[in-house]
Amino acid sequence: MGLQLWGSTFTCHTDRIRIIQKKAIRIIAGAPRLENTMPFFDKLHILPLTDLYRFSVGQFMYRQTYIHSPASGMFNVLYKNSIHEYFTRGAHNIQAC
Questions:
Q1: Does residue 87 form part of some domain?
Q2: Element (H, E) at 53
Q3: How far apart are CA 21 and CA 44, in angstroms?
Q4: pTM
Q5: Angle at 8 between CA 94 and CA 42, to 5 degrees
Q6: How far apart are the C-alpha atoms of 41 and 59, rounded to whole Å?
Q7: Distance of CA 83 to CAs 10, 61, 67, 70, 92, Å?
Q8: I want to staple 29 with a disulfide (CB 3.0 to 4.6 A). Which of 20, 40, 59, 86 is the partner?
Q9: CB-based contacts of 78, cutoff 8 Å, min separation 6
Q10: What range defines the domain where residue 18 resides?
Q11: Any domain includes 58
């Protein structure tokens, strides 16, 4: 749940964590200090921090939208077209309640 809350902050706040994650990947893979880490993320089947955030938010929104479990999150999600009958541009947008 923490990643969903602070993962969308400015990159200056997540840079240290991202750098530590890259250092750990290089150590695990035995790669040199300046080696590109993306191939190692793929090889080790580990998601980088930004992708992990996107995946986590996607899971959360899926649970809120389709499962409707009160235990799956902090708030309910509604489509705006269920609030009123007007045909508006954002009728298919999701709104947190």
A1: no
A2: helix 49-62
A3: 13
A4: 0.68
A5: 105
A6: 21
A7: 33, 19, 19, 20, 11
A8: 40
A9: 94, 95, 97
A10: 2-71
A11: yes
Q: Which two tokens stand for residue 93?
A: 């947008």
- Tell me the one-letter amino acid at 95: Q
- In the block, which residue shows the tokens 């939208």? 65
The single residue listed with the structure tokens 């077209």 is 81
- Dmax (CA) for the chain in angstroms is 60
Is 93 a member of any domain? no
- For residue 93, count CB atoms less than 10 angstroms from its CB and return exposed for 0-12, middle for 13-18, buried for 19 or more: exposed
Sign of CA dihedral 53, 55, 58, 62: negative
Dump pLDDT digits (tens) for 10-53: 888 889 999 999 999 999 999 999 999 999 999 999 999 999 99
Looking at the structure of the chain, the number of domains it has is 1
Whether 84 is in a domain gets the answer no
